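Table S2 (text version). Query chain:
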Amino acid sequence: MSEYDYDLFVIGAGSGGVRASRIAAGHGARVAICEESRVGGTCVIRGCVPKKLLVYASQFAEGFADAAGYGWTVPEPAFSWPELIAAKDREIDRLNQVYLRLLDHAGVDLHLGRGRLVDAHTVEVGEQRFTADKILIAVGGRPWVPDIPGKELGFTSDEAFHLEQLPQRVLIAGAGYIAVEFAGIFNGLGAEVTLAYRRDRILRGFDGDVRQAVEAGMQGRGIEFRYQAAPARLARGDDGVAVTFSDDSSGTYDAVMFATGRAPYTWDLGLEQAGVRTGPGNRIEVDEYSRTSVDSIFAVGDVTDRINLTPVALMEGHAFADTQFGHMDRPVEHADTPAAVFSQPPVGTVGLSEEQARELGFKIRLFRSGFTPMKYTLAGRVEKSLMKLVVDAESDRVLGCHVVGPDAPEMLQGFAVAVRAGLTKADFDRTIGIHPTAAEELVTLRQPLESN
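Corresponding structure-token output:
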């Protein structure tokens, strides 16, 4: 008889925690999980899924406008924000029930409430305490808001999905993927959108050509950029929220959204009490097997601040469960992780950017193409797609693949397999393109831009 209540206790029922608990239970472990909110976590409840639904909704206006170029006469469309939010809520409720059934069918015990470490083998949930041979922390992250006067007048991505009405004048503070995605959502649904950023270009960390192409596409849709300026003070005004910026300029908006980053949700988790070491930004430090500084405690997902993407959390949780309960050796591998930004225009990317490749000392060849998507030719829309390959000049291996334009995230999934497999530019060249598609451009690029 085990000395513990469970073989594994998971704190946090988001993507990583649910995956780890189900896989561990499938390996025969006695598993419990706790959750203080709704099962499904950030991605399902207040992140990727509802955001993508709102992105779809925001794209209809553009589709209506483009239809005339294809011979359609479309009556004046009308949009209802409350109806969209109600439909989104129904879908999230459905997915929440799916996750609950997944845990139940896997035989995982669910305890509702905030989990807190007591020691290396004990978790406290409300008034109850549970012991486990191993504990997995998968609590994710939470939006970070700058500490400025009037910050309570703004909202974050968590609240954006529950606004009662669509604001007509929106200021978005930030320039990462959440900021640019919500800028496209509000803009597409009819709002006037201004994006304010303390630096000089959106999507820091992405390839420079990608950043420029997305910015151009957003500007073409009427989104205003205020660079070298961040909100410094918010105040309630007669006509909305009055914002004073760091450059002493000002403006008034119906709503202010803070998309200024996310932080690991480590506060009041009992980490110090249990001896778990944290690093910069309060992230939980882990090794390649997701083990913390305490042998019996592990962590996966955004709380570790490695690569904060849902599929990464799923992979980390799965690898943890296979290693600890499935008698496998599965260290976590983050190399060549593909990513998408559901901006308008959207982005798909995998591997090294041009800038990263240069910083790492590679001699590179660059292949790049910009063209008007076929869909836009009859519509008369002026916007360029971007296709770019970063190639190691010595080995001919494709180090990075970057696409901006319609369906970019969909096409990049397949090319991510190629990049991760280490295929060369010659392998791309030998592949016959599918015509007419945008994706064929990636296998027909022949003339390099430059060498170094």
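Notes on Table S2: The longest strand covers residues 128-137. The chain has 13 helices and 21 strands.
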